[in-house]
Fold:
Amino acid sequence: MYVVGLTGGIASGKTTISDIFSSLGAAVIDTDVVSRSLLEPKQKGFHKVVEKVGKSILLDNGEIDRRALRQLIFSDEKLKHWLESILHPIILTECREQIDLTESSPYVILVVPLLFESDFKSLVDRVLAVDCSKEIQLKRLTARDEISVDFAERIISQQISNEDRINRADDIILNNGEESELITQVNKLHQLYSLRSDPGLG
Ligand code: ATP
Structure:
């Protein structure tokens, strides 16, 4: 299966773009979705996190407060590394299984926020990076997550720079404009990936 890794900084537009790929018939596997499901009660990551962080991380309904967990790991580097060391191998295995099970699509879009900072590179044939200006990224992030500009800037500063990401990608989508402008860019790439994934033509 031909796999395209879709990466980009926080709130750069990965989900918005993967939704368009999906509407064109591409299979989409999102590592954030896989990661979230692992933190649900009774799933592999749940007990490990509660054991490590304590029950104060639970909401009244018994689920992990992912917003609070995110706040915690951004202010505690050690905890962040611990959580990644627990979750990444399980997510990697789960993604590999989902890719192997994909039949209905010529290629897979694998959404991986930290593609260059992780082992997920080993799963992809090609890298597509989303780029947008820091000002727009900050505006969209603070509006969507209702967080302060200061906290949003700290999150962004912990990720690799947009410039680095662009230099290392095979393809780039620029997301500074309207959502409708994304459709043309995604359409072109859909054609390219459909060709590339065809063993007779690629
Ligand atoms: P995360 O890194 O947190 O997973 P993401 O990269 O998947 O985020 P999205 O959730 O797709 O980013 O987009 C972030 C926010 O910006 C969302 O509220 C989305 O609706 C909005 N957004 C994305 N692209 C555009 C656009 N071109 N115009 C206006 N709003 C946009």
